[in-house]
Amino acid sequence: MLEKTFEPQAAEPRLYAQWEESGLFAPRTDGAAEAYSIVIPPPNVTGSLHIGHALNNTLQDILARYHRMKGKAVLWLPGTDHAGIATQMVVERQLAAAGNVGRRDMGRDAFIEKIWEWKAESGGTIVRQLRRLGASCDWSRERFTLDEGLNAAVRKVFVQLHKEGLIYRDKRLVNWDPHFQTAISDLEVEQREVDGAYWHFAYPLADEETYEHPVTFDDEGNATEWETRSFIVVATTRPETMLGDTGVAVHPNDERYAAIVGKSVILPITGRRIPIVADEYADPTKGSGAVKITPAHDFNDFQVGKRAGLPAINVMDAFGRILNFDAAYKGVDAEGRTTEDFEILRLVESFPDFAGLDRFAARKAIVARAEEEGWLREIEKTKHVVPHGDRSGVVIEPWLTDQWYVDAKVLAQPALKAVEQGDTVFEPKSYEKIYFEWLRNIEPWCISRQLWWGHRIPAWYGPNGEIYVAETAEDAREQAMADYDSEVALTQDEDVLDTWFSSALWPFSTMGWPEKTEDLERFYPTSDLVTAADIIFFWVARMMMMGQHFMGEVPFKRVIINGLVRDEKGQKMSKSKGNVIDPLGIIDELGADPLRFTMAILSGTRDIKLSKQRIEGYRNFGTKLWNAARFSQMNEARRVEGFDPATVEQTINRWIRGELTKAERAVSEAIEGGRFDDAAGGLYRFVWNVFCDWYLELAKPVFQGSDEAAKTETRAMTAWTLDQTLKLLHPVMPFITEELWAELGKEGPARDGLLMGAEWPVLPDAFIDASAEAEIGWLVDLVGEIRGLRAEMNVPPSAKPPLAFVAPDAVTAELIARHRDLILTLGRVSEVGSADAAPTGAVTFVSGGSTIALSLAGIIDLTAERARLEKEIAALDSDIGHVNKKLGNPNFVSRAAPEVVDEQRAKLAEAEAGKIKLQAALARLASL
């Protein structure tokens, strides 16, 4: 006999060990088996399981377990990402906490050795946590983005793309993190709203030029008064960058400045002469309509500078300090600047007050100088969005520097075409728009990072700056020999590759490329990719580009995009808000299955509103299943050797057979379609509402009756149905179903093995019996109406009013006779009779085409019940009026968060529906 409750804390580690030892995580070796493959989005090696991981990996595991049970050779390939900046930061912090020297003092080789030591000790945390979730990955194939095989793949790709002219070195603006002194990707930039200001500076016109500037306007916006100006006002949130201004832009259609386009201003402090240019980037409606242009420190300004031919001048070093140009002269030429640029930079040498200052200290000093010299015209306080490094927390500086780039535009074309023609599809399809929008407007991809932990760029520099790109140092030396008569010293590039570069190769590098392996032959392209929307362009698109370029095929046939998990109010989870749900804490307390089921059933929305209470609710679902199995055992429902469900005769057994068949179809189609919420919803309805609430209730009288043939058949049918239910539920709730499979297998014929390796049920159409469905449907609808009416009329649970069918026809009379005992028990009525008309004091309702009367006279207090209903209707009227007032206020609808507006609309709909039900109950009372 089963224990009273399922204890996940004891069972889950034991069951997972059995799965792992069974070898079922590895693909079937049967060559005839259809292949199904999926690669895990590699979590950072520094990471711990968060709720997003729990969602993403639950959905992947559902797919892997389902297809495995369908008889396919399933490869779910796991691995972790070396996470360059995150891992380096973790180890640097540990070194600092232990009082050790920093990485620069330690040296590159010694520091990297320390990171490998850390990985050996702590890098497997998230892999162990994925096991706790139940992830059925093939751990024998686990990969790491810095393992030797992937290193070889990365080097080969870099060298080949460089030979094809698709990787090159260039000077462009990057997101520069002054804390880590490295370029970072857009994904690693966090936009934060901060308090700031617009500082309005008056730049004097050169050559004593003046112009007439409008100052007064009529109602139609026409200028009526002008003043003569010898300056132009610009506004900036970053005064420190003015040292690098090389132009001022105005809109070409802005009549205010038409007379001075092509003229120049003298940049304060530096004395630099810079032109006024016309460019559509300048917005006439914002501020003065004139903007300072600093091409080396602003992405938009960089583009304006390119269009207008303006020089780009770095005014900061890698730490975000104003350059000391005495020390930078040598670097100027090395950076490839022209002599003219060099001379411009020399001008700053005259102002040592700024050299070496941190950018924010320089800001204060420059503003003070502007105020002192009279060219500060206004300080306008504002809130604005400023980019910060997501790990360092410092303000990101757009910085002009030499980096390695991929010509992504060329690689993007086949990736675009593949989705356009359906070689790869997105689920939901709406996410294709994000993919298309990014690829059609793609910029060169900066792939170099100024870190030590990562794939070191396979490029070596000769004595005169020559670049030799090769897979090995030996190959680079051979290339250099062609330029020199003798062997020369080469220096390898200090930078490493962007983590996303190696991740872009993940679907094929993990299967052994560039070697021609059996795994590549069998499992590439992969079947599905499950990932989040925020990395469609950072990862999905890049895998598409690399997969097609190097494999000639798309890397996956379908991309399933999962939503973002938020708290129950729709707010983003964050530690500062205290609203984070820790999946490991949930697993410790409630087990993995309730968490997995919750993730699946809520997965159909872009924003998943999650609360612990929801997860607890689905733990109750597991408890319901467990209790159903115990009930079956107590009633001797055991599996029977050779039992054939096609031969059952009892109506309830033919009915449950059909309901199970329909559930199997619905669940299979939903999982195949990537609709995990529909799959979980279908399982919930069948297990709770159909099997537990109705079939077992309908079977009770049979179990307790004297018809031995019916009892034997129903016991066997109950056991068979429970077995098939465990199979259907296993991909979503693997632990409790595996435990029940083992426990129930102790009686009856021996099991063939673990449930995980069992065959998915595929039930024939003939199992759906229309006559049984109609008959049991009639009974279920009737009992449901009785129960609903009892609740609506506030009938005490202990009361058993009489029920009468009004003038039933012969078919109904036969159904009544056959199911009278069930109606009495399930409907909690004292008798089931018939009458020519509804008795006095009865409430009537219609079910199955019949009019039925439930006698309530003397059972409920009509006066008190009428007062209760009127009071509840009045309360709902008040709620409806209050919500309508809110929703009718344009300010509320436009200013409130969307989730708050949606919540109010849902509240209104619920109140209106409740009012309709109460009014119907009140109307029924009037007829008594």
Overall description:
The chain is α/β, with parallel strands linked by helices and 928 residues long. Helices cover 46% and strands 18% of the residues. It contains 30 helices and 31 strands. A four-stranded antiparallel beta sheet has the order 6-5-16-18. It has a four-stranded mixed beta sheet with strand order 12-13-11-14. The radius of gyration is 36 Å and the shape is globular.
- Helix-strand makeup class: alpha/beta
Mean pLDDT: 92
Q: Rg to the nearest angstrom?
A: 36 Å
Low-pLDDT ranges: 326-350
The count of DSSP E runs of length 2 or more, i.e. the number of strands, is: 31
Q: In order across it, which strands form the biggest sheet?
A: 6-5-16-18
Characterize the main sheet: 4 strands, antiparallel
| Residues in helix, % | 40-55%
Count helical runs. Answer: 30
Strand fraction band? Answer: 15-25%
What tags apply to this protein structure?
928 residues, alpha/beta, 4-stranded antiparallel β-sheet, 4-stranded mixed β-sheet, globular
